[in-house]
Every structure is written in C-alpha cells, then in structure tokens.
Amino acid sequence: MHWFPLYTKEWAASVGHMSAAQRGIYISLLVFQWDNGSVPDCMEQCARIAGAMQMQEGDWLIIRDKFKRSDEDGRLRNAKLESVRSTQVEKAEAVSNNAKRAAAARHKRPEPCARTAHAMPTQCASNARALPTQCHSESESESESKRIKTPPTPLARDAMKRLLMREPAWRTRVERAGAGDWYVKGEDGQQRVVTEDEVIAEGIEVIQTKVKAERLQVFTKCMNAGLVEDEAHALYRRWFADHLEGGPSPLTAMRNDLADKSVRNIAAVWRARLAAPYNPGHGTQAQVVEAGAAGGPR
To answer: Where do the structural domains in the chain lie, given as residue ranges?
Structure first.
C-alpha cells in the first residue's frame, strides 16, 4: 500500500498537546513506519528520519509515547497505524477482486445465436488462418503501447540525490563537505569533519521522507477524485519522472490540475493522460486527448 487514510478528528484529538514541530516529526515517523513496518527506538535516528536535527529530548519523550516498543525486535510501532494497515489491505484486496471480475465480464464474448451457429464453422476455418499473424501483430502493438505509456523508473538513490542537489542549503553542504569544510559536533563534544558521502546520505533520508509524505497526499487526492490505486500509482510515476527532468513536484502538478476550474471531470483527464504515450518533458499528445475528455460530467 502506497498511502494511508488520515482520520482528521482522531488526529486532532491525539496531537492537541503537541507543538507544530512535534506534530511534523510525528507524522513523518508514521509515514516511515507505514513504508518500513516500524521506526527505530533511538532519538537521533528518528530525528534524521524526520529531518528534525534540533529535536530536544522533551520532544522525543512526547512523540515516543505514541509508539509501543516491541519485545521481539526492540523497534517502535504505532498500534493505531497497524490497525489501519490491516483494514486497508482488506479493502484493497476487495477492490482488486471486484476490478478483476468487472474486467473479465467486459472482455467476455457473447454466445452466438442459434440461427447463425450453422455459419460459424466455415467462417472460423477461414478466420483461423489469419489469426496467428493477426494476434502476433496485435501482441507486438500492445507490447509497444505498454512500453511507451510507462515512464522510466530511476534508481531510488540517484533520483533522491538529484532532488537533493536542487536544494540550495543541501547543495552548499555537499560542496563544503567535498572540500573538507563541513563539521559536526561528535558525542565527545569535539568537532569532526563530515565527508561528502555522509552529507549526501543524511540529505537523502530527509528528501525520501519529504517525498513519501507528498506521495501520500497525492495518492489520497487522486483516489478521492475517482482513480483506482493502480491508476494513481501510474500517474504519480509520470509526475515524478517529469519532476526529475525539472518539472514541478507531483504534489504541485496535481494541485495545478485540480485548480483548473474549466475541467469538470478530472479523473477522465488523468485517465486520458495515462492512455496516451508518455512523453518526458510535458509532451503534447496527452494534451490533445485531454481536450476531448475535459467536457465530461464531474
């Protein structure tokens, strides 16, 4: 599962005693748990995961109280989130099974009527000779279609590093670390030089947490708009691929689409975009298809 629901009333009640910074750390750790199954029982590691290097011990104690430590592996888990995970898995399986049944029903051929049944042997015999070549051609066409509709998936570390180097503050850190001019205070209170690889590794953790949090928002909005999970996942991949080429983030791209008041059926627009060949860098073919889908009922 690439997303989880946020029950607003329960959330507001559970974090009413937290500061804004504590809430940000808490939701970041919940996202990390959702993707990884648990969070480490270590303030320093959780601070890096949440991108909150200034977190104080008082903050940590308040946030840690929301998690329960497992005796088996010594890691922390939020019980409510695990309950939500079980519910979402059951719902996803039900939706998937319903979609498979619906697809099977759509592609099921109708039975021939009795009066035309006598004509079928001759027709089938003639058609059978053409089928191998025809099916081979259709198979190649279908394969080519799938190949151009799906954007490339970059290596996670490479993608995160590219996004990291767009951040001026992190780019400065990496450059200074590469020149041997970046220091941190060690456990003994003494400053030590931080290597470029260490800075990049720390920055990638921060960027990954940010990307995962934004992905959750995108998935929630897309599915609320009417897309199924597979469609939301494919659309996010396209937006993210464009983002790596210099385009807006998936969250910004989604918000821009939703802000277009002239579109009455945004789900139809997104499905048309997915059906069109993928063109890195904002191709025009998708826009042509969208123009025909934009007028449907919302």
So the answer is: 8-80, 156-293
